[in-house]
């Protein structure tokens, strides 16, 4: 798996971490022991070297830089946009809803230390291939395509319906996701758990997803519907702030869990 092979996740070679001056000072001290110099000269020599050794051992200028924390890249794809308005959600278009959702989720993820790449930041028309291109260039560890619908209830969670294949050497663009299906199903499992934990109803499905089918990353599509069926008393609509917050918080929690699973796997 790509994220396991990521060398940035590995600690630096400890052999290279001994400060050069520390080693040079130690060498000088050892040499002094072997030298036949007069005793008072030797004492002065030792004092100077011991002082250097103390500075070398404790001085902040010799402290090792902390290892760079590995970048864990998440791609957020706000579905539709521009000429493609998507579904009508009351007075709002789906394209506006997904963009707002993407922006909200991005800030939650950045606050949790994720590197976030978005497919669009404005009301722009974007073909499925362009979305996949952005995702594949990002070398992401998780990709989420965001949709919304008025029909049904809760969150509809989709994984591509492509049949899984072993890591193809030269995957076809249209079916690149086939090599990632098993990872995508695992990722969907983590997302499902987080949403269920937040008491958001989830419906799981497999379907053809034009943008995701070409993505080389663990990927899911999420379609947010009102929390409850509208014929039930007291529906929580798509614009309910509490419902929106529970969904986005749960998605952020799912990605935190997904990241910790990836880091654990990389240490094995
Ligand atoms: Zn949609």
Radius of gyration: 27 Å
Which class of secondary structure composition applies to the elements? alpha/beta
Overall residue-averaged pLDDT value: 81
Annotation, overall tally of beta strands: 8
Question: What summary fits the major beta sheet?
Answer: 6 strands, mixed
CATH architecture call of the largest domain: 3-Layer(aba) Sandwich
What small molecules are bound in this structure? zinc ion
Whole-number tally of structural domains: 2
CATH topology assignment of the largest domain: Aminopeptidase
The helix count comes to 7
What does this structure look like?
With 268 residues, this protein is an alpha/beta fold. The protein has 2 domains: 16-62; 73-267, Zn-dependent exopeptidases (Aminopeptidase, 3-Layer(aba) Sandwich). 42% of the residues lie in helices and 15% in strands. The strands form 2 sheets. The chain has a 6-stranded mixed sheet with strand order 4-1-5-8-6-7, with helices on both faces. A two-stranded antiparallel ribbon has the order 2-3. α2 (20-34) packs antiparallel against α3 (39-58) and α6 (181-197) crosses α7. The chain is globular, with a radius of gyration of 27 Å. Bound molecules: zinc ion.
Which characteristics define this entry?
single chain, 268 residues, six-stranded mixed sheet, alpha/beta, Aminopeptidase, 2 domains, two-stranded antiparallel sheet, binds zinc ion, globular
Provide a quick synopsis of the model.
The chain has helices spanning 2-5, 20-34, 39-58, 94-111, 128-138, 181-197, 241-267; strands spanning 73-78, 88-89, 92-93, 115-118, 142-148, 155-160, 202-207, 219-224. With 268 residues, the protein is α/β, with parallel strands linked by helices.
